[in-house]
């Protein structure tokens, strides 16, 4: 049950375009087990640059 | 069994269309509109999108998507189909599909319904899907890049210029919608002002206090928004506080410009990101709430199927049913802006190629459904009430008595008491001449919500709807000014290199300032316009948005032809031909029509004559004439750009058809998926 709740929250975050730190940690380990993991604050900053950095826009 | 189900859905849709078509003179329930729309969407999705996917585009379940091949945990992330559907829908939906149908309701509910439903199934959803597919096959390239690579280098520049100009008109017209909703409304102004400190607080929470905790910050932010909404009523009723928050249109317009400038030069974490979450959350919540409300109340549609204003004499905006119904309802049926989203983040997140139809085609069907709901909310209003809010003050006169008399001459019945009572019930001094669509949509939504969830809260629901619209329009002003700034900096960088550096603060301030002045110019012009501003600006926006769709369809057609599927090119050529005839006719009429309400140049001549006769102050008149000429020039530029782009595209199509150029596309190389 908590697993399902976590999945639902993860889906909600993605729909709203929010960062998801725990998912990032999981993905980063999957992609490259030896890689450095960003702190939550560093991850948030990187996410902000990625989403809004080059001009983010949505439709009217 | 499945066949039976689809026969049932088709019959239900056909029955609903039959009821809509045959029922004249009596009011019908909104349920028939909803049933007809949903039935048609389902059939369109099941059959037409599948045809597009299999026969035309050749969606390949075995081909790996860029999200899979380039997965980097950042922008390329394979995402579950339904989550990405929600994400994509949140990115394409905004104020457009809500406002357009409300304005076009002056023609009656029938033309709008037909265009929203069939326009999306045959045009809008096709455009979104084809562009999403094309970008997905090219590692998420943007519309401009694809235009450059597939058609020719000059088209990339054209597309870029068109996008910048369209953005400026869009920002101006959205700001005008907010201005008209907030003028002389202390409740509205107070609650919207509150959203700024709330967002700042959230921004600080999410980055400084509890980094990355966006969900809790958003939940807290929404709670504070509701508090601000309730607080607004006390402000409006307080003789001491109300005057502080009561402002005319010009003051509010300047406030929006200052906000747009300030917000766009602040760091994104402080204001843009929190506002983005708040408005997305509120948008999805409100759309769901509206759907539930309409399903519970099933309001009867008070507006006739067709009004006499199809002849072009409508007070909301000038111009005949053709072409103006089709450019006024922009985003609900087909929207060029979606091509920018469909060639942006979404294609980088698709997990399987077979997910593309539900996201591209299905996402746009959902947007169209939002437009149908807005249409239901507007046409469920008493037509007299609808016109009292949406006709400009210049036509209605300043009092409820003069408004009721004018509306009687238009053939609808409304009493002065009814108008006063309505304004009081939503906590406003007056709703007369609040053009722009948002206030009448808010009244319509308040009717539906209070019908579904309790009658006493009319005022609260009205201001909830206003806040929800203003919230995401303000976010758009911020985001759009930033995008405009980046584009402008790219241009300026060619003139003097340091101006192109987005990390150089003086360059940012300069470019943001220019963009804000550009949209602010049109905004102030709209606020001062005696015809209400919407009459000149909304058609310009509609034309530009549909022309951007024409650009996207040119790119789509080129790609389909180069894929060797020229025999199916009609899927994009059909909507392209329709859009060109609609927008070029509308553009031509806006520039050259002899009716001064319709044609910009005729309005300039009319103003000159009135200056000569002493009816208009020469200084004000000269400014109006200048504005008319700017608007006319802009419409002419839009048309020229599109015709040029069309010619370049046609040359390319002919070259491929005659075998002078190979029918080959520039897709990323084939890699087999590991998900199959």
- Could you tell me the strand content of chain A as a percent range? under 5%
The name of the CATH superfamily of chain B reads: Amino acid/polyamine transporter I
Quantity of strands of chain B, as a count: 0
Which oligomeric form is depicted? heterodimer
Rg of chain A, Cα atoms, Å: 14 Å
Roughly how much helix do the residues of chain B carry, as a percent range?
over 70%
Count of alpha and pi helical runs of chain B: 26
Overall structural class of chain A, as computed from helix and strand content, comes to mainly alpha
End-to-end Cα distance of chain B, whole Å, is 28 Å
Compute the number of structural domains of chain B: 1
Largest interface: A-B, 35 and 55 residues
Mean pLDDT of chain B: 93
Regions of chain B with pLDDT < 50 over 5+ consecutive residues? none
Helix content of chain A: 55-70%
Tally the helices of chain A. Answer: 3
**What is the makeup of the main sheet of chain B?**
none
Mean pLDDT of chain A: 85
Structure commentary:
- Chain A is an all-alpha fold.
- Chain A has one domain.
- Chain A has helices at 2-16, 21-31, 40-52.
- The mean pLDDT of chain A is 85.
- The mean pLDDT of chain B is 93.
- Chain B is globular, with a radius of gyration of 24 Å.
- Chain B has one domain (30-185, 246-657): Amino acid/polyamine transporter I (Up-down Bundle), CATH 1.20.1740.10.
- In chain B, α6 (109-136) crosses α24 and α23 (534-562) runs antiparallel to α24 (570-592).
- The chains are: A mainly alpha (60), B mainly alpha (676).
- Chain A binds chain B through residues 9, 11-19, 21, 24, 27-28, 31, 39-41, 43-48, 50-60, and chain B through 71-75, 77, 79-80, 82-84, 86-87, 90-96, 170, 174, 206-207, 211-212, 214-215, 218, 268-269, 272-273, 276-277, 280-281, 284, 330-331, 335, 337-338, 340-341, 476, 479-480, 482-483, 485-487, 541, 545.
């Amino acid at each position: 049950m908590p697993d399902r709740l976590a999945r639902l929250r993860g889906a909600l975050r993605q729909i709203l375009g929010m960062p998801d730190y725990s998912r990032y940690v999981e993905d980063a380990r999957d992609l490259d087990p030896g890689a450095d993991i960003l702190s939550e604050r560093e991850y948030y900053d990187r996410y902000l640059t990625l989403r809004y950095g080059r001009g983010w826009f949505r439709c009217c | 069994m499945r066949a039976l189900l689809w026969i049932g859905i088709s019959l239900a849709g056909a029955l609903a269309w039959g009821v809509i078509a045959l029922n004249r003179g009596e009011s019908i329930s909104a349920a028939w509109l909803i049933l007809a729309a949903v039935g048609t969407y389902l059939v369109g999705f099941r059959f037409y999108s599948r045809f597009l996917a299999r026969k035309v585009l050749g969606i390949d379940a075995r081909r790996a998507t860029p999200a899979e091949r380039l997965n980097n945990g950042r922008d390329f992330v394979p995402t579950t189909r339904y989550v990405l559907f929600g994400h994509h829908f949140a990115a394409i939906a905004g104020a457009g599909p809500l406002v357009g149908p409300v304005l076009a309701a002056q023609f009656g509910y029938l033309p709008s319904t037909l265009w929203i439903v069939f326009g999306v199934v045959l045009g809008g959803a096709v455009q979104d899907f084809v562009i999403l597919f094309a970008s997905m096959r090219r590692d998420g390239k943007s519309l401009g890049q694809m235009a450059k690579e597939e058609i020719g280098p000059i088209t990339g520049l054209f597309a870029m210029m068109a996008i910048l100009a369209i953005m400026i008109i869009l920002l101006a017209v959205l700001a005008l919608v907010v201005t008209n909703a907030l003028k002389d409304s202390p409740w509205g102004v107070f609650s919207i002002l509150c959203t700024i400190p709330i967002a700042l607080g959230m921004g600080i929470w999410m980055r400084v206090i509890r980094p990355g905790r966006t969900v809790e910050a958003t939940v807290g932010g929404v709670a504070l928004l509701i508090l601000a909404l309730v607080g607004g009523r006390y402000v409006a009723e307080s003789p001491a506080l109300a005057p502080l928050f009561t402002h005319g249109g010009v003051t509010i317009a300047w406030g929006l410009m200052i906000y747009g400038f300030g917000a766009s030069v602040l760091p994104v974490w402080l204001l843009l990101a929190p506002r983005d979450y708040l408005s997305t959350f509120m948008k999805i919540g409100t759309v769901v709430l509206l759907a539930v409300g309409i399903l519970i109340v099933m309001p009867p549609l008070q507006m006739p199927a067709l009004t006499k204003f199809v002849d072009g004499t409508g007070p909301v905006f000038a111009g005949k049913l053709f072409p103006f119904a089709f450019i006024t309802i922009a985003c609900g049926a087909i929207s060029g802006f979606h091509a920018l989203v469909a060639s942006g983040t979404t294609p980088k997140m698709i997990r399987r190629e077979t997910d593309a139809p539900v996201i591209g085609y299905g996402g746009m069907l959902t947007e169209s459904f939002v437009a149908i709901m807005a249409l239901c909310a507007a046409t469920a209003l008493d037509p007299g009430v609808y016109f009292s809010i949406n006709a400009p003050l210049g036509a209605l006169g300043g009092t409820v008595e003069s408004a009721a008399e004018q509306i009687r001459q238009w053939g609808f019945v409304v009493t002065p008491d009814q108008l006063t009572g309505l304004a009081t019930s939503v906590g406003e001094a007056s709703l007369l001449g609040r053009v722009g669509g948002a206030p009448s949509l808010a009244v319509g939504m308040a009717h539906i919500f209070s019908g579904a969830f309790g009658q006493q809260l009319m005022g609260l629901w009205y201001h909830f709807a206003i806040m929800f619209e203003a919230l995401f329009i303000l976010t758009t002003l911020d985001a759009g000014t930033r995008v405009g700034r980046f584009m402008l900096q790219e241009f300026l960088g060619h003139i003097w290199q340091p101006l192109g550096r987005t990390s150089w603060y003086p360059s940012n301030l300069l470019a943001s300032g220019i963009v804000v002045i550009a949209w602010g110019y049109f905004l102030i012009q709209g606020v001062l316009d005696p015809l209400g501003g919407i009459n000149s600006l909304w058609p310009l926006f509609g034309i530009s948005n549909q022309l951007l769709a024409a650009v996207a369809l040119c790119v789509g057609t080129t790609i389909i032809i180069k894929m060797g599927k020229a025999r199916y090119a009609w899927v994009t050529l059909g909507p392209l031909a329709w859009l060109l005839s609609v927008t070029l006719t509308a553009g031509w009429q806006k520039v050259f029509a002899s009716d001064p309400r319709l044609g910009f140049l005729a309005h300039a001549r009319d103003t000159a004559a009135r200056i000569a006769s002493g009816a208009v102050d020469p200084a004000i008149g000269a400014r109006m004439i200048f504005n008319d000429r700017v608007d006319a020039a802009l419409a002419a530029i839009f048309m020229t750009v599109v015709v040029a782009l069309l010619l370049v595209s046609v040359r390319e199509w002919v070259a491929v058809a005659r075998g002078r150029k190979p029918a080959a596309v520039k897709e990323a190389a084939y890699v087999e998926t590991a998900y199959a």
